[in-house]
Amino acid sequence: MSFLALGYALASSLSWGAGDFVSGVKSRTLGVFGVLLPAQLAGLAIAAAIVAARGEPWPGAQTLWAVPAAFAGTLGLVAFFRGMIAGAISVVAPIAGVSAIVPVIFGIATGDHPSVAQLVGIACALAGVGLASVEHHEGRRRVAAGVGLALLAACGFGFYFPWMHAAGKVDFWWASFLFRAMALVIVAAIVAQQRTPIRMSRRNAVIACLVGLGDTLGNVLYAAAAGTGGLISLTSVLASLYPVVTVLLAASVLKERIAVTQRAGVALTLAGVVLISV
Fold first, then answer.
1. Into how many domains does the chain fold?
2. Which residues are paired to 141 by β-bridges?
3. pLDDT digits (tens, 9 = 90+) for 105-136
4. Which among 84, 152, 106, 149 is positioned nearest to 276, based on CA atoms?
5. What is the C-alpha separation between 191 and 180, in angstroms, rounded?
6. How many beta carbons lie within 10 A of that of residue 147, not counting itself?
7. Strand 134-137 to strand 140-143: parallel, antiparallel, or no bridges (unpaired)?
8. What does the mean pLDDT of the chain come to?
9. Is 60 exposed, middle or buried, given 0-12, 13-18 or 19+ CB atoms closer than 10 A?
10. What residues contact residue 84 under an 8 Å CB cut-off, 6+ apart?
11. Residue among 95, 87, 103, 96 nearest 127 (CA)
């Protein structure tokens, strides 16, 4: 596999990680869809502009795998944002990063052979989720806030990877455009059904749009990793390193404090995600 594909996958994790942190913080004041709707609009605008500027015809039905990827990815984002509203970002983000397990299993089913390190990584990630999920409150153990939503996000993100990988192998720009268009339809339909007005300042609108551009950049980079010959079992896991960026930002900017056992769980989860990518 080319180093270019690995570079694209790692760059996508940086873009997603930074965007997820900003989204998580802003969704606490603007609401999930107050961030998602303008973000999707901005993302679609840039993807449509690039597809139009390229002037390349639609490459075929294979890129339509971006449509189910949009359903899975949007489900993951809604659950992820709500999880970060409910609980600590530094706990929710690593659990959502366990999504890396799904494409590894998919890769095994389609002929990939995981290394011993990857299998150990899966075990570490699962054990880490268990530790990070439990907090102590007044002498009692309970599931930490946001854990259920983080696991739902992991499922959504996990199924996003194989579908977007299949679409990106054909044409990553068209795949990114179709993904963003479908994601906007889904988000707009939910907003219309809820009939909740979305109001925000110009500054927050600009921030939400920048989040959308960052998320779209992550989608494009991940699809590009597939388009340059990257194996799904590796590129998807490297892209799943985004929680490392999110956790580091939460620790340095928000100064989040979590229990010692939860910190161990976060570290073990992140170590597992790294091992899976070896």
1. 1
2. 136
3. 877 787 767 678 877 877 787 777 667 766 65
4. 106
5. 16
6. 21
7. antiparallel
8. 82
9. exposed
10. 20, 23, 24, 27, 28, 92, 93, 146
11. 95
Which pTM value belongs to this model? Answer: 0.78
Do residues 152 and 97 make contact, with C-beta atoms less than 8 angstroms apart?
A: no
Domain span at residue 243 reads 3-276
**Quick one: tokens of 82?**
């709500």
> Residue 174, Cβ neighbours under 10 Å: how many?
25
pLDDT at 81 over 50: yes
Distance (Å, whole) CA 134 – CA 142:
6
- Sort 139 into a burial class: Cβ within 10 Å, 0-12 / 13-18 / 19+: exposed
Name the nearest CA neighbour of 208 among 86, 251, 216.
Answer: 216
Owner of token pair 């229990």? 259
Judged against a pLDDT cut of 70, whether residue 64 lies above it is answered with yes
Rounded Cα distance, 33 and 269, in Å: 28
